[in-house]
Amino acid sequence: MKISFCTTCANRLYQLKQTFDENIELIHEHSNTEWVLVNFGSTDELDVFIQEKLKNLTHRFVYIKELSGRKWSLPIAKNVAHAMSSGDILFSLDCDNFIGNAIKNIEEHFIDSEDRVLHEWSKNRNDGTFGRIGLNKSVFYKLGGYDESLYPMGTQDYDLLRRAIAIGCKLVKNNDCKLLPIQNTEEEKLALCKQYNLSMTEFHSKNLEVCLKNIVDNKLKANNGIFKLHNIEIFRGGLYY
User: Fold this and answer.
1) 188 Rama class: left (phi>0) / alpha (psi -120 to 50) / beta
2) Which listed residue, of 35, 64, 144, 189, carries a Cα 20 to 30 Å from 84's Cα?
3) Considering only CA atoms, which of 60, 118, 114 is closest in space to residue 93?
4) How many other C-beta atoms are found inside a 10 Å radius of the C-beta of residue 220?
5) Cβ neighbours of residue 231 under 8 Å, at least 6 residues apart?
6) Confidence band, pLDDT 50/70/90 cuts, at residue 45
7) Is the pLDDT at 114 greater than 80, yes or no?
8) Is the Cα torsion angle 13, 15, 17, 20 positive or negative in sign?
9) What is the mean pLDDT of the chain?
């Protein structure tokens, strides 16, 4: 069973620097894993940071540069990361999160069943662990991935979970999150979507309204099942082991 950790990053290099070494060490240690990192229009030094590290990383580290110029959107960015992953199990890992015990937990919960969705979070919606979601690749595609019609942030992870449960997946919760994410402010969260002039609460409430309506209407497959991969560049680590 191959596990893909699917990560996006846009102007959060300061957080990635704090999680990167520990996460990549686990990827190096576990040959059944890969880590796919999407640079979705980052204007900081993310590309320089990754390019300098690539030659010393396992080839199972995959770096994607999204060059289409599309406006930033978490659902779109996460779909790119998941679509470029080759694992049997796809696990959403924000760049401010540590892998921690996720590999062990995934292997335990998916060993005998594919129709599950693992939600590995601390039960604190405000600490950044809510988006730690693992599911079988076939289930992800059956759901059409993250709903790209939503506003660019807020509730996209909850929406994916609710649709997975609605199609019959068993929800497995694991609260063993000993390593909490690198925290950020609400201002930092909103920095990439100021044009909407909405608060975090408003982003969540507007997307939740769409989510719940789709559940009621049995509209469970997002995006007509199509992920629009426009202009991307793909790089891999230089070490083959």
Assistant:
1) alpha
2) 189
3) 118
4) 16
5) 66, 67, 68
6) very high
7) no
8) negative
9) 93
- Residue from 85, 64, 103, 65 nearest 140 by CA: 85
How far apart CA 94 and CA 20 sit, in angstroms, is 11
Provide the CA 107 distance to its chain's centre, in angstroms: 18
125: number of Cβ within 10 Å: 11
pTM of the model: 0.96
Q: Is 241 a member of any domain? A: no
CATH number at residue 72: 3.90.550.10
Which two tokens mark 158? 């909850």
Distance CA(59)–CA(144), nearest Å, equals: 28
Does some domain include residue 167?
yes
Q: Which amino acid is at 116?
A: R
What's residue 175's pLDDT?
A: 79
- The type of residue at 34 is E
d(CA 128, CA 134): 16
Provide the residue range defining the domain that includes 10.
Answer: 3-236
Number of domains in the chain: 1
Give the C-alpha distances (Å, rounded to integers) separating 51 from 42, 56, 229, 231, 234.
14, 10, 22, 19, 12
